[in-house]
Design a protein that fits this description.
alpha+beta, 4-stranded antiparallel beta sheet, globular, FAM234, Beta-prop_FAM234A_B, membrane
């Protein structure tokens, strides 16, 4: 205020007051003068270093004459974005429209992608099937008889294994060649139990093997059917259509003795090949009938033979065993077979005697010295593995090993034999075992356990599960038994938690007021 009054009292024509002279009015109150200067600057502004009153002083002299507080405030105002022209009011920067557009676009894209992922998961991931039960009851009628074998395979690709089994029924497949009950192969849905497809078979089946022969690299939906006489056929699992049939002329004399053995690729066509054991009785004077066994290699892609039949003369009494392919720790392949005993012959020997020609395929390049030294003194090509009294023979993969053990079932016991040196691991005494022990994972130790069915009496059976590592009893159950079960065997199915579901048959007759029906129950433990 003092500065303003001092400037107002100056007369016209009088020299300007020198700011260096002492003026009591201007120096009366320094604080007040500084505040007034600030107000004056805010009202008039500074343009190009000069005041709005048109003072002739340059910019540098004005700045030097200002108090330090004023100088500091002017700098701060410039840093804050205030305009140096005009009234020094704040200049508001408009928000960037590009940033807002980008943020909105990213948000909308995130929402759209999330919705698409939810919809894709909802359509691709199947919902859990409700109403599934652990016991199946199949009513097949009084004119239908169940025949072995039984196989599990996901035919319709819904993630649930379906059931392939054979019936003796004219109602399902119609009459055939005058047979009252022709054999009929049917597939039951694992979810609903409905029939997916059915087809007649030329003869009774002894084996159904699905998913093991891969004709095309992208699919394995094939099933290999082995009949009880001369049938060997490959069909499509999805429809039941025939892919190839082995010619009956290949087994002109005798019959197919056992299910076909699936081997590695022997003819370089990128498809596993097969081994078939043929059997017939030969009558000799003074000795009687002798078994005549022959091995025949079959192409898995075409069903045509690879060379001729290779025959071996063996001795033994009892049930025909095998053939089964055994892989040693050295990678050598031996075929196990016998009559009440277990004998072995190298697959490379069969291949060589079939006179296929050429060098051995890569799968037959290796030999195992531990097995080769077990040949007899006369260097016979047949190796003795186990003594007489054998009813069933199975190969069992070893946990964390590259070889298999042998599970031998006799009339009185079940014995696990070590595959490397053929020494006994354990043995358990059991009588009246009427079917193959079924391997599966009952506990969580990683070793295969075994479900065994024992005939208790004429109407009952006992089902037990023993530990594969120690032979200890893990589980047992009693149910009814029927004579038709002699030719059936149990199955096992590996679940997501690393354990197995064991499946076996029980049979009983149910009588009602209308008719007598055969009821077949599929038990799952």
């Amino acid at each position: 205020m003092a500065t303003v009054l001092s400037r107002a009292l100056k007369l016209p024509g009088k020299k300007s007051h020198d700011p260096r002279e002492y003026d009591p009015l201007t120096q009366a109150d320094s604080d007040e003068s500084e505040d007034d200067l600030v107000i004056n600057i805010q009202q008039n502004g500074i343009q190009n270093g000069k005041g709005t009153r048109g003072a002739s002083r340059d910019h540098d002299s004005d700045i030097e004459g200002m108090p330090k507080r004023v100088q500091q405030r002017a700098v701060d105002n410039k840093q804050d974005g205030l305009s140096t022209t005009g009234a020094l009011e704040p200049e508001l920067k408009p928000p960037s429209s590009l940033i807002s557009y980008v943020r909105t676009t990213v948000f909308l894209l995130t929402v759209v992608v999330s919705m698409v992922m939810v919809l894709v998961c909802a359509f691709l991931i199947p919902c859990p099937m409700n109403g599934q039960h652990n016991v199946w009851t199949l009513h097949v009628g009084h004119d239908t008889e169940l025949s072995s074998p039984l196989e599990l395979f996901d035919v319709n690709k819904d993630g649930v294994p379906d059931i392939l089994l054979t019936f003796l029924s004219s109602r399902i497949c119609g009459p055939q060649d005058g047979l009252k009950q022709p054999p009929c192969l049917s597939v039951l849905s694992g979810n609903s139990g409905r029939v997916l497809w059915s087809r007649a078979t030329p003869e009774h089946l002894q084996s159904i093997q699905c998913g093991q022969l891969v004709i095309k690299p992208e699919q394995n939906d094939t099933c290999l059917l082995t009949g009880k006489y001369k049938l060997l056929s490959l069909i499509a699992a999805s429809s039941g259509g025939t892919l190839w049939n082995m010619s009956l002329d290949n087994v002109s004399s005798g019959r197919i003795a056992a299910p076909a053995v699936i081997l590695p690729d022997l003819d370089d066509d990128f498809t596993n090949d097969l081994l078939v054991l043929t059997y017939k009785q030969i009558s000799t004077e003074g000795i009687g009938s002798l078994p005549d066994l022959g091995f025949l290699l079959i192409s898995g892609r075409t069903g045509k033979p690879l060379g001729g039949i290779v025959k071996y003369s063996i001795m033994g009494e009892g049930k025909l065993l095998g053939p089964q392919a055994y892989y040693t720790s050295q990678g050598a392949i031996y075929i196990l077979f016998g009559f009440g005993n277990i004998q072995a012959v190298a697959l490379r020997d069969i291949y060589a005697e079939a006179k296929i020609g050429g060098n051995f395929p890569s799968a037959l390049q290796r030999i195992d010295p531990d097995w080769e030294k077990r040949r007899s003194v006369n260097r016979s090509k047949v190796i003795n593995v186990y003594s007489a009294g054998v009813k069933f023979l199975q190969t069992v993969p070893v946990y964390l090993g590259n070889f298999s053990d042998l599970l031998v079932t006799t009339k009185e016991a079940v014995t696990l034999v070590r595959g490397q040196d053929l020494e006994q691991r354990w043995s358990i005494s059991l009588n009246n075992i009427y079917s193959h022990p079924q391997p599966g994972y009952f506990n969580s130790d990683g070793n295969l356990d075994f479900l065994i069915q024992i005939q208790s009496n004429a109407t009952e059976k006992k089902v037990i599960v023993i530990d594969g590592a120690t032979s200890e009893l893990l589980w047992e159950w009693e149910t009814s038994w029927h004579e038709h079960e002699k030719d059936t065997k149990a199955l096992s199915l590996l679940t997501a938690d690393g354990k197995s579901v064991f499946i076996f048959w029980g049979e009983e007759a149910v009588v009602d007021n209308s008719s007598v029906s055969s009821v077949l129950d599929l038990f799952i433990s």
